[in-house]
Amino acid sequence: MTVANWVPVQPTAGIQAIDSTDTTQNHGLGTIIRARHATLGEGEFIYLQGVASTVVGSVVIYNTANYLTTLAPVGSNKPQPIAFAMSACVASNYGWYQIGGNAKAAKTSGLALASNAAVGVLTTGKVAATASGKEIQGALTVAKATTPTTVTLIIDRPHMQGRVT
Fold first, then answer.
1. 3-class secondary structure for 105-141?
2. In-domain check, residue 1
3. How many structural domains does the chain have?
4. N or C: which end of the chain has fewer CB within 10 A?
């Protein structure tokens, strides 16, 4: 899956490439920027520290206190914010994660996703069609999934469904 060619809108100077990973922290964790892609349009991204086993499009939850990520668990009932990895940003690395716009997401292989379908996490770190009560809030398929491993979602500051207890 390619997510290259995202160009920061503002600010533009000195920004780590959206689709790259670095072992050096180049921005403050939690920094949010906007960038534009020729075919996907404009998106919003947050700078986070990676987690093991991340691939491009992995869905992660992140802690807003320290901005550490974890691959999103199956059917979580905690309303944690989520984001989609723009690179294979593994543990001890830093990179951008998408939180707004048209996003390429890793999906559970072999499961069909229709256009305008709700999605949830049915395999750790990947999206799939889901049953009621397990949806990712703020995420919807743009079109029917055309590859076995990815799907395009429209996202707006997505989060896991649930309530704080």
1. EEECCCCCCCCCCEEEEEECCEEEECCCCCEEEEEEE
2. no
3. 1
4. C
CA-wise closest residue to 138 among 89, 98, 85, 96: 98
Residues 6+ apart with CB under 8 A from 18: 3, 6, 8, 35, 45, 86, 96
Instruction: Tell me the residue range of the domain where 43 lies.
Output: 7-160
| 74 within domain boundaries | yes
What's the pTM value of the predicted model, to 2 decimals?
0.91
Please choose, from the candidates 18, 44, 16, 150, the residue with its C-alpha nearest in 3D space to the C-alpha of residue 102: 44
Q: Residue 95 domain-assigned?
A: yes
Which residues, at least 6 apart from 109, have a Cβ–Cβ distance to it below 8 Å?
Answer: 148, 149
The verdict on residue 86 lying in a domain is yes
Give pLDDT tens digits for 84-102. Answer: 999 999 999 999 999 999 9
